[in-house]
Amino acid sequence: MSIPSPSSAIGLPDFRNQGIWLRLLLAANGLLLLVALARNRDLARLPDELLDLSALGEPALLLTLIGLFVLSSWLGRQRRALALGVVIAWSAAAFTAIDALLTASFGTPPGWRAGLAGGAGAALLLAWFGLRAQAQAPALAEARLAALNARIRPHFLFNSLNAILGVIRDDPRRAEHALEELAELFRVLLRDNRELVPLSEEIALARKYLTIEKLRLGERLQVRWEMSDCPPDTLAPPLLLQPLLENAVYHGCETASEPGEIVVRIAARRDGVHIEIDNPLAASTAQRPGNRMALANLRERLMLFYDLEARLESGEHAGRYRVSVDLPCRTSS
Q1: What does pTM read for this prediction?
Q2: What integer pLDDT is reported at residue 5 of this predicted model?
Q3: What total number of domains does the chain contain?
């Protein structure tokens, strides 16, 4: 199982990603505008010349993107040189085909320049994406480090151990089980979390975390899971649920004197999965620090994994704090 852009591992953008499509369309149209400006000798004719270029460029660009969308998984399994060559060749072929179609339909003069321009444009855009990936690499490493540092608050370990010590004489089997859960939790937290994992694993990890917190907080912590339409095979970023639930416990139940209920809703959507976590927000904890930092870290990781296809929203609603996450549909297949 890997990040949902297998081609990125060999230096290619993920041609299935909506954010990549948007950037490619904007960059390619920018190149068309630069070509029109370079060829122009009379500014009054610039709109007509740009329209002529767009008549060739826009259909060819869409044909190129559709083909690369279909080939994306295959490209991710090839060597870098072959994959790059296929992308450039496909772009040149698409521009040549559209140019031939325009020649047959409108009698425009044929030529070899369209295919050359398509291949050269593809090579230029691939170089841009490669430089962008290199520039993004330090940010990715920093985000992973921030995720490691923000995974679990130090007080959680000490509080959990104290809670286990509190029941070890009265209920040794329960204490043993809690220690096993704590060990498993930290094993996952300290592993290299660069790959997406099935949502079912994230849910299992979240349940382990809540089991430990339940030992500490007792009846003050109530959790309701609403997952009748949950797609367990959907791939999700590692450590997606646990930090959100830790925030919910920290801000909603830890300092409250009355029982508080955390609600976890996970449901399939037409284009992905929707996750929602809300918790009571006591007046005394409304301004406790840390929530925004955790959400900013998670938002950055979602951007690194999914570009523009994932969304995170948060806010207060009727005395409760709600975080919702929308993920695109990705599976191991």
Answers
A1: 0.62
A2: 46
A3: 2
Cα(220)–Cα(254) distance, integer angstroms: 8
Q: At what angle do helices 291-306 and 113-150 cross, to 10 degrees?
A: 150
Give the separation between CA 72 and CA 67, rounded to whole angstroms: 8
Domain end call among 82, 116, 140: 140
**Strand pairing class (311-317; 320-328):** antiparallel
> Which residues, listed in sequence order, are joined to residue 278 by a DSSP beta bridge?
263, 322
Burial of 150 (0-12, 13-18, 19+ CB in 10 A): middle
Q: Which tokens belong to 41?
A: 């000798």
The reply to whether 157 and 281 lie within a common domain is yes
Do residues 170 and 46 both lie within one domain? no
Q: The domain containing residue 220 runs over which residues?
A: 151-328
Residue 133: CB atoms within 10 Å: 14
Length of the chain: 333
Please give the torsion angle defined by the CA atoms of residues 54, 56, 57 and 62, in that order, rounded to the nearest 10 degrees.
110
Exposure string for 48-77, b = 16+ CB within 10 A, e = fewer:
ebbeebeebbebbbebbbebbeebbeebbe
**Same-domain check for residues 185 and 100:** no
Are 251 and 289 in contact by the 8 Å Cβ rule? The answer is no
Contacts of 31 (CB under 8 A, 6+ apart): 121, 124, 125
pLDDT (0 to 100) of residue 263: 94
From CA 332, how far away is CA 198, in angstroms rounded?
8
Domain final residue pick, 113, 140, 167: 140
Tokens of 65: 């993107």
pLDDT digits (tens, 9 = 90+) for 211-235: 888 888 888 889 999 988 888 888 9
